Amino acid sequence: MRKSSFERNTKETQIKISVELDGKGKADIDTGVGFFDHMLTALSVHSGISMTVKVKGDLHVDCHHTIEDTGIALGQALGQALGNKSGIVRYGTAYIPMDESLAMASLDLSNRPFLVFNCDFTNQSCGEYDLCMTEEFFRAFAFNSGMTLHINLLYGSNDHHKAEAVYKAVAHALKTAVTENSDGSTLSTKGVL
Predict the structure, then answer these.
(1) Which portions of the chain are predicted below pLDDT 50?
(2) Residues contacting 106, CB < 8 A, separation 6+
(3) Which GO terms label this protein's molecular function in UniProt (predicted)?
(4) pLDDT at residue 183, rounded to an integer
(5) I need a labelling partner for 63 at 20 to 30 A (CA). Which of 8, 37, 71, 100 fits?
């Protein structure tokens, strides 16, 4: 079974996460940040990866620790569920429109973490979610799962739509990348990732 559970407890956040790669995208998300819950639900549903994410964070400070630490924990859980990353398609790319916005994500589950993030937002926040945390979340997620991740927001005017297009583009790229390949081999000239 391609699934994992992960807990991370610090003085700033207490996080419990479980993921199931073949779970059909059932989402049970509660981070205390409504817009972030909405984005993680989209990430789960559109990737087909079932996720339970329960977070208690120091939201009296701001949303930073909650969002970044969730990225760390979710990345760790994904990496554990993938094991040695053999038997998967490995790569995924998706362009996703959200009304007037268009985002592209391309990723490689390579054990070589990297993030390229080319997205501009107009406003500071959507609800209690600071839009600058979008980059911090995906950096933590990519580095802790061993993912090379490129995200480009091509255009858009509504920040809600822009952020949602980004999360959904990553979700669809991830859905392709975690798909099991036909022979269970490791897609690498080295033979290992």
Answers:
(1) none
(2) 91, 92, 93, 94, 149, 150, 173
(3) imidazoleglycerol-phosphate dehydratase activity
(4) 81
(5) 100
Alpha-carbon distance of 123 to 118, in angstroms, equals 16
Annotate the chain with DSSP letters as a single string. Answer: --EEEEEEE-SSEEEEEEEETTS-S-EEEE-S-HHHHHHHHHHHHHHT-EEEEEEEE-TTT-SHHHHHHHHHHHHHHHHHHHTT-TTB--EEEEEEEETTEEEEEEEE-SS--EEEEE---SSSEETTEETTHHHHHHHHHHHHHT-EEEEEEEE-S-HHHHHHHHHHHHHHHHHHHTSB-SS----STTS--
Structure-token match 């079974």, residue found: 1
Which has the closest alpha carbon to 23: 41, 47, 42?
Answer: 47
Domain map (residue ranges) of the chain: 3-177
Q: Give pLDDT, residue 191.
A: 67
Q: pTM above the 0.85 mark?
A: yes
Length of the chain: 193
